[in-house]
Design brief:
With 690 residues, the chain is of the alpha/beta class. It has four domains: 6-152, no CATH class; 165-364, Rossmann fold (3-Layer(aba) Sandwich), CATH 3.40.50; 376-544, P-loop containing nucleotide triphosphate hydrolases (Rossmann fold, 3-Layer(aba) Sandwich); 549-687, Orthogonal Bundle (Helicase, Ruva Protein, domain 3). It is 44% helix and 19% strand. It has 27 helices and 25 strands. The strands form seven sheets. The protein has a six-stranded antiparallel β-sheet with strand order 6-7-3-4-5-8. β6 (120-129) and β7 form a beta hairpin.
């Protein structure tokens, strides 16, 4: 077997270079290796977009992020997307025992497959080309005997050639299908001009002579080119271009359908990761048509859901990877398009950096923004509606009940209410009623005069109402107060006055009371555990905070917020991988935000890696699997008069299968653990996306 770099694996041992966390990127060339001086790296689309978006298109931050990844991993493989790229460079040194091809020192070479398994060191990044997703740099990469590399031709511009090679596997696959099926019309959905040109030429080369090709482009992504300029470059390849707002896919489809006289597409090539592109593709494709996802990862499964919703039977392809004959094919296609590629390069050279940032940030927004109101972070639309309600209620100086399960963040809602109210400059006194002893409750709320009882302070003491005068008094777990104390509390709310314990002087107060409880106060009233008159005095406005399982999209931003907080606290930066965040989203969080923060804290402390992966998350969450199942069912029962049996059984089936797969590693052994046939388990694994 040819050498594929096993000796370069540093962590964890026993893995291969592309899947290892860290590689040995030392410069010395070992048997079966050669070293290449890097000129340029073409990053995969999702890799480049994630880094740029996360760094907000700040060039110095992007460079720092790339160098940090290489410093920590010994290779350029984005830990969030697990993708990498391809490179071009010059051979510096070849070990005498290298048997990976007919190469010599000084040859200019290009990689044909992902460099995720190449040990790499970059000393300096000299340029970032946002138009092509390329970084020009000074550094080196270690190439193995099994690495897919070829000598680089001198007659072709390296920038578009790298783009073509990045798409090579997809191009070959689509070529074969177009050649066999001969579609009469094709839609190309995407805003990358180079990729659109490549797939349009491919469709012309291998489709019928009268094939109709349309292009659908996101209107915000190509603000620097108008329809006339587009048609000048693409007119000989594309029959019609539609500039569309992909955030409104149904409107886009209706417009295209009218213009195309309701002619559905035989084939659709989706090159776009912007949310909405998958729906447009699903709407445009005819029943029994062919839908290609070329290098698009995020929207593949969403498009399958859209197709199911539309009741269509479509052959769908997720295309990527290396094909043996692809290099020559990519070279020929690039040579054929040389004139058009030069025209596009001229257009791109005048593209303002702001347009690049807008396009990239739109992709980031399509994956949901993290919203922030003061220190309250959220992403889910459900929470957005909640925040709007809170901000609206804050300006009215009325009493409020905040209701929700333990750990949902009721105190955060209180802070939002207080800071956005007319009393924001006044004190906000927070009291947990469950901690107050019954025989001390009156003196704690109203204070006492000196000598009023044995053990009293000589100077007397202010009570909670006095401390909160002109401000806000927050009574958490108010349902735990005894009925006698509830009666006294009602009187203060009615008359805005009270007497200290042992006092004769009436104290007047102006306090806004906000209270919270994890059990419905109305239910406590019905059970005779809470005074009805006090309930109506407090219940001017009721704010219900939904549990975390009902606002799943908040989990991502909260997890990232907490990990950043602990990184700052302990002075070591850590973060979650994309798969780890998905695992956190899949969990049901019976303890809500408080449990999530605790889990993130424990993961931060216990995990030795700078990137916390899905396996670390699974280990924590599966430890309490069976306990959590029962807690979840009990909580559901407390909140509803009846249970959805089918939903509960489906949820538990998903958790059981996930647990078995995590524990046993293979579907065969997981099926044996659960005592079910392996095909059944495999089917359910696909059903639940595990």
């Amino acid at each position: 077997m040819k050498y594929f770099g096993m000796k370069r694996v540093a962590e964890p041992l026993g893995t291969i270079p592309p899947t290892a966390w860290r590689l040995d990127n030392s410069k010395t060339v070992n048997p079966g290796e050669m070293r290449v001086a890097i000129e340029v790296i073409k990053l995969e689309g999702d890799n480049f977009s994630q880094i740029c978006s996360d760094c907000e298109y700040n060039e110095s931050r992007i460079k720092e992020r790339i160098l940090t990844i290489i410093s920590k991993r010994g290779k350029l493989q984005n830990p969030y997307t697990e993708s990498s790229g391809i490179l071009a460079g010059v051979i510096e040194e070849i070990h005498p025992d290298f048997e990976g091809g007919d190469f010599k020192t000084g040859d200019r070479v290009i990689s044909l497959a992902s460099i995720a398994g190449f040990p790499m060191f970059i000393d300096k990044i000299t340029k970032i080309d946002y138009n092509y997703g390329e970084i020009w740099c000074i550094g080196y990469a270690i190439i193995f005997e099994t690495s897919q590399i070829e000598k680089r031709p001198e007659d072709i511009d390296i920038k578009p050639l790298l783009c073509a090679l990045d798409e090579e596997g997809s191009l070959i696959d689509i070529k074969d299908i177009i050649s066999d099926e001969k579609p009469k019309n094709i839609a190309i959905v995407g805003s990358n001009l180079i990729d659109t040109l490549l797939y349009a030429q491919l469709s012309r080369n291998y489709g019928e002579s009268d094939i109709r090709i349309i292009s659908v482009i996101d209107v915000d992504s190509l603000t620097y080119i108008n329809k006339k300029e587009f048609e000048k470059t693409f007119g000989h390849l594309i029959d019609e271009v539609y500039f569309a707002d992909m955030s409104r896919p149904v409107n886009v489809y209706e417009h295209i359908s009218r213009e195309e006289r309701k002619q559905e597409m035989d084939a659709v090539i989706n090159l776009e990761d912007i949310k909405g592109a998958e729906t447009i593709s699903a709407l445009l494709i005819r029943n029994k048509g062919f839908l290609f996802h070329a290098g698009v990862r995020k929207n593949y499964f969403q498009s399958l859901l859209a197709i199911d919703c539309l009741g269509k039977e479509v052959t769908s392809y997720a295309l990527d990877g290396y094909a043996e004959e692809a290099y020559g094919f990519a070279l020929n296609l690039t040579r054929q398009l040389a004139k058009n590629l030069r025209e596009i390069d001229t257009i791109l050279s005048h593209r303002p950096k702001k347009a690049v940032a807008i396009s990239g940030m739109k992709r980031k927004k399509s994956e949901k923004d993290t919203n922030r109101v003061e220190d309250f972070v959220y992403m889910d639309p459900v929470t957005g509606d909640l925040v709007d309600t809170v901000i609206n209620v804050a300006k009215y100086d009325c009493n409020v009940i905040i209701q929700g399960e333990t750990g949902v963040g009721k105190e955060k809602i209180l802070d939002l209410l207080h800071r956005n109210s007319p009393r924001r400059g006044q004190p906000c006194v927070k009291i947990n009623c469950a901690t107050i002893q019954e025989n001390l409750a009156e003196s704690e709320f109203f204070g006492y005069e000196k000598g009023s009882f044995t053990g009293a302070q000589a100077t007397g003491k202010e009570g909670y109402f006095e401390m909160a005068n002109n401000g806000t008094l927050f009574l958490d777990e108010i349902g735990s107060l005894p009925l006698a104390m509830q009666s006294k509390l009602l009187r203060v709310l009615q008359e805005n006055s009270y007497y200290r314990v042992g006092g004769t002087e009436q104290k007047n107060v102006n306090v806004r009371v906000i209270c919270a409880n994890n059990v419905s106060l109305k239910k406590l009233v019905e059970e005779g555990k809470f005074r009805e008159d006090l309930y109506y005095r407090l219940n001017i406005c009721l704010i219900e905070v939904p549990p975390l399982r009902q606002r799943k999209e908040d989990i991502i931003c909260l997890a990232e917020h907490f990990i950043k907080h602990y990184s700052n606290k302990y002075g070591a930066e850590k973060s979650f991988t994309a798969d780890a965040l998905q695992r956190l989203c899949d969990y049901h969080w019976p303890g809500n935000v408080r449990e999530l923060e605790n889990t993130v804290h424990r993961l931060y402390i216990s995990d030795k890696s700078n990137f916390i992966d899905e396996y670390a998350v699974d280990d924590f969450l599966n430890d309490n699997f069976y306990d959590d199942v029962m807690v979840d069912i009990k909580k559901e029962f407390k909140q509803n008069d009846s249970l959805d049996f089918n939903k509960i059984m489906e949820d538990q089936e998903k958790k059981l299968i996930a647990y078995a797969l995590k524990k046993e590693k293979t579907t065969r052994r997981a099926a044996e653990l659960l005592n079910i046939p392996q095909p059944t388990l495999a089917r359910k694994k696909v059903k639940y996306g595990l």
